Please model this.
Amino acid sequence: MVYEVRDRRNLDEMGYYDYAATMGIPYFHWGGLGASDRITELLEIDNNTRVLVVGCGTGYSACRIAMNTGCHLIGVDISPSMVEKARKRVAEWGVEDRVEFQQGDAYKLDFGDAEFDVLMTEFVSVFLEKPRAFHEFARVLRPGGKLGVNELFLADEIPPEVKPKIERVLEGFEQAVGLPLKIPTMSQWKTYFAEAGLENTGQEIVDYKYRIREIEDVVGGTWKLLRMIGRVAWDMARNGKFRRRMMPIGRLKDVLMRNRETKGYAGAVLCVGTKPA
Model:
């Protein structure tokens, strides 16, 4: 379903993720559905797994995981509008028996200790204070439970001539989304897992790519995708402030995934760790 922007006069104030959600963009993480499928495999999610997704957004990835695996899943997001859309998706997809969404704070999850077999985030933990969030994540995992993140990483060593180019685009993206973007190195991700008491942390670099066919399918076909692109182009053309704020979004993808000089020094990674039994 494509959600209409209720009041386009508020583009100056509208945050990137709220705007993307109203336009019907179903998920935001790099690697697309291939990365989601792979982390589901690494986390060994099946119909006996109780899953918590932190930063569920509009619920597309979470609902898809539940439909593909039969797991019981709860998604939380700090944005009420995201949760509203996620709940609509539950009804549209007919997964009310095993999926629910609620508003929640990643730093203070409204669940008891050891309630979940799996907790996962997709392009969410990069915006969080990792030590604080990961200790909370570990708290709600049962012994033997797994934490999985599908997130961005920086190389442990970046040439001095390349590093400023990456830093500039990250700064621009941070300003565009209005959130503090803190991307760890590969070794730092492992440290955050270890400091939260998680063991056997494995890492796998994401080499999946978005494909036009995938985007067409998830938004409802070619015509709906073209309409969406047209709406975004129109909003950017008529609102200079909004255009300047949104331009860094595309630049980040170019630098992290396509630019020959910077590619390999930044990208997406799947990390999975286990709470000791």
In short: The chain has one domain: 8-152+181-243+264-274. DSSP finds ten helices and seven strands in the chain.
